[in-house]
Amino acid sequence: MVRAPCCEKMGLKKGPWTPEEDHVLVSYIQQYGHGNWRALPKLAGLLRCGKSCRLRWTNYLRPDIKRGNFSREEEEAIINLHQMLGNRWSAIAARLPGRTDNEIKNVWHTHLKKKLSIKQNSTTPEAQGQESEPEPEPENTSCFAKSESFEYGPVSPPQCTTSADDTSSFTTSENNTCSANMGMKVDYEMNLPQADESFWSEVLSADQNCSNETVSCDFDQAIGAAADPQVNATVEVPVDFGFSGSNMYDNCMDFWYNVFTTAGEISELLEI
DNA sequence: AATGTACGCAACCGCCGGCCA
DNA sequence: ATGGCCGGCGGTTGCGTACAT
């Protein structure tokens, strides 16, 4: 079965899309939807092949696409998911709301692959005696150290929810005070040992900036839910935990990944 | 300032599998 | 059962821009 290339037809435009073309495509899809991609360009009056239209829509024009740089948490998610899923970009994208497989693929090839190899080299016994790590070590590596890059912004809406296949959520209370959460990142990168119930209190007791009474985590519930994707997991992030402001979402994501990845449960969460 | 090089990203290409006549 | 259409996917390309020399 031989198929003609989709854009072989003369007269069909290739290359970058113009704002006018974008407008035509968006207007048409908003009005009529995209029932048949092959028929769409003709009906919409575009000199493009259906495939090109579909790509432009799914990778760029779709309204639910999240633009802008990938957050640290998203990058970590990609790295974790790639370890488990390999180059199944669409499967990875399905777990990162608002991100396209193409975008994730690009980020992987341009940033993360490099980043990961540097990291791995730096952790090998041969490399440990060398100064191969380009990224400077954070000055304060305490578990909840404050970072200058974090702003003490206004309090975000009290509900901060994130999900992976809708299996987990985080709730923060109102009137949080914000302290940066760089420590959790540092912890994660330092390959924490398997976490148990005493993990977070141990973390906290090592940090003078926090007191044990300000942080708690329903760890049993988190692990249990991670093992069973059908069960909603709620991890309580207490008032004084230090999440608020413009970074609340990121901080909650940080929290989420530390809970699950350090527990070694993410693969179960993803049903792999 | 000019040139060369590296990088990032949007878009293309070809293959594959599902669906349907 | 077969062949064609279609959408989805992953790999790759090529252009524009930033950075280095």
TrEMBL record:
SMART domains: SANT. Keywords: DNA-binding, Nucleus, Repeat. Pfam families: Myb_DNA-binding. InterPro entries: Homeodomain-like_sf (IPR009057), Myb_dom (IPR017930), Myb_TF_plants (IPR015495), SANT/Myb (IPR001005). Signal peptide: none annotated. Residues 115-175 are annotated as: Disordered. One of its GO terms (cellular component) is nucleus. SUPFAM superfamilies: Homeodomain-like. It is found in: Nucleus. This is Putative MYB transcription factor.
